[in-house]
Amino acid sequence: MTRSPIYVAIDTPDIARAREIAARVRNHVGGIKLGLEFFSAHGQAGVREMAALDLPVFLDLKLHDIPNTVAKAVQALASLKPAILTVHAAGGLAMMEDAKAAAPVGTKVVAVTVLTSLDGNDLDSIGVAPDTHAQVERLTLLARQAGLDGVVCSGNEVKAARKLWPQGFFVVPGIRPADGNGHADQKRVMTPRQALDQGASILVIGRPITQADDPDQAARAIEATL
Ligand SMILES: O=C(O)c1cc(=O)[nH]c(=O)n1[C@@H]1O[C@H](COP(=O)(O)O)[C@@H](O)[C@H]1O
């Protein structure tokens, strides 16, 4: 049986709730994603507890600092052996190279390009040319040059990015089912089916599953569209 491409983003500081969601959706997802909210509340002990549920763990800490600091942080996380670990591509080439060198064998290190919560106006406001496509493409090439495994981008850019890096691993968040209500803080969104068709390797889906009355049913319904 091939694994589902869905990683469910378990964004909660409540570990009992995190365990409950993971247990309920486990047959309809390929893994769980633990990010800043969960890690800030529970740290490595919490990640180990969730890893005991025996689903691949995507540790999304979006590391972004000078190369030495990021490399040492990756070393400090290495014993967790996450399936996937994130850094920010905007940290630059040397930071990404050093992050990859410090990561355990078997951990995919992927770089966040342009957050899915940003649009062209947001890029302009931080002094970056207001073209999300061009910026994603540029950072994808940089991540490739650094020897990373892939990048994180929205479904809108994944086709163009994959063209630049056919063997890359493409993580796509900002996923909203067609019948869902509201994008919340996400600006560049796409349906699960479209994102896969455009070249996503995996889909990161949080609130459409975790905030549903029945997370298992929500995951199942999304899986049925794939
Ligand atoms: O790296 C990520 O996973 C990520 C990158 C990005 O550009 N946008 C983005 O939303 N994410 C993460 O994907 C998840 C999206 O959650 P929902 O909007 O609830 O589906 C969150 O855990 C975010 O931290």
UniProtKB/TrEMBL annotation:
Enzyme kind, highest EC tier: lyase
Orotidine 5'-phosphate decarboxylase domain boundaries: 5-222
Functional pathway: Pyrimidine metabolism; UMP biosynthesis via de novo pathway; UMP from orotate: step 2/2
Positions contributing to substrate binding: 11, 33, 116, 176, 186, 206-207
SUPFAM superfamilies, per the entry: Ribulose-phoshate binding barrel (SSF51366)
Cellular component terms per the entry's GO annotation: cytosol
PANTHER family assigned to the protein according to its UniProt record, in alphabetical order: OROTIDINE 5'-PHOSPHATE DECARBOXYLASE (PTHR32119)
The protein, known as: Orotidine 5'-phosphate decarboxylase
